Amino acid sequence: MGLCPLRFLDSQGKRADGYVQLRSAPRAKFLVWQADALKWLFKTDSSLDHPGSRSLSSVLGVNSLLWADGERHERFRRVLAPPVSARQLPRWHSMVAATVDRAIDRLKPGMVFSPTAMARQVALEIAGAIVLGSRADVLDEFATWLDRTIGSVPRTLAYRLFLGGFPRSPESLDRRLVAAVRQAAAEGRPSLASLLADGEFAGIEDGELRDHVASLLFAGHETSASAVAWTLHWIVENDDVLANVLAELRGSTANGSTASGLPYLQACVQESLRITPPVPNAANRQVGTDTPLLGTTIPARAVLAPSIYLAHRQRDVFPNPGAFDPGRFLERKPQSHQYLPFGSGTRHCIGSQLAQLEMRLFVASLLRRRTLRKVRPGRARLRGHTLTPSSAFRMRVVACHD
Ligand code: HEM
Question: Ligand 1 centre and the CA of 267: distance in Å?
């Protein structure tokens, strides 16, 4: 996709065939957004392989649950998905709300702040609580390392294009991550990672545990931070949308713990995930045999990467796709191969409900407790594999209402 991945994607969006071949060797790779092909991929997902992205495999490790397949993958999902499912969401409400409110407490009148940095800090604390079971010190070390690795666009591109992938974390950090998980498991503190150190996973080796913990923190933290920052960005960039959100908040006591409590805000969340999906490409899918698809024959072992970004820009599904229009989600529900910010099929994101909870609670509380004015918008940039508003994005606190 070259040096300007977003410009490349925008330039491909109007192709009628709905796919582009990215490379031919060592294995052919296609970026796909054609509706029928996506539908087929997700329907047959359980029979496909899911090889990791070359750049992330090195950083998250070969054992990562993100590229597990078959029975091994099913076991991970059986254990990890229920605690963050819609039904279990209430158990996280107060932790998420308190984390958000602590961050808002620090915003004083006159302050100019970076919503992107603020959202990243909040998302890190929430991911830490869910994945590690506590606000462990090792989280800051993890965030600092991640920032050094993917924090600048030139570095991200250099690692991805010329160095064969992002570098692995230092051994000392890996040891501390594993120790935090083992301690949570020993103390019976509930956390996603400790479920992988106990029960049917008892006996798991440190190296494998490290890959899963790094993957869960990575999958849960950067993505949610970017989603929160984008939602704020789009709401404050559109005066009519901001007026509608504020009117909904004034007319309700709901805090966003359910989607139905603040339906317009939920529509903003969905529209933000459409127009700027934090994860622009879903996980790679690999076909085992020559496969008739996309009006051609996709050769055996070819890799297909579903383009969430381009699927979300199809005019027949989303008229005027470049406009931020939450109303489209109040009117109808697109199908899962047309609107897929959390992917689909057997790999559908386990954190989708939790992430949307975080987005609603964050935006509702911030806009209720502070009057804000936009100072500078953010431009879209890639941080690692995540589409995020640049750090130029700034807002000013005009008044506090605590
Ligand atoms: C707005 C925030 C988030 C976005 C946009 C997002 C997006 C995605 C996407 C696109 C995938 C790949 C799905 C596919 O290929 O079909 C995925 C997978 C995954 N996500 Fe998320 N995610 C978010 C938050 C989270 C959170 C909070 C967690 C952890 C609690 C999480 C954990 C995972 C895991 C474990 C997978 C792998 C699932 C599997 O392979 O079976 N994500 N996510």
Answer: 20
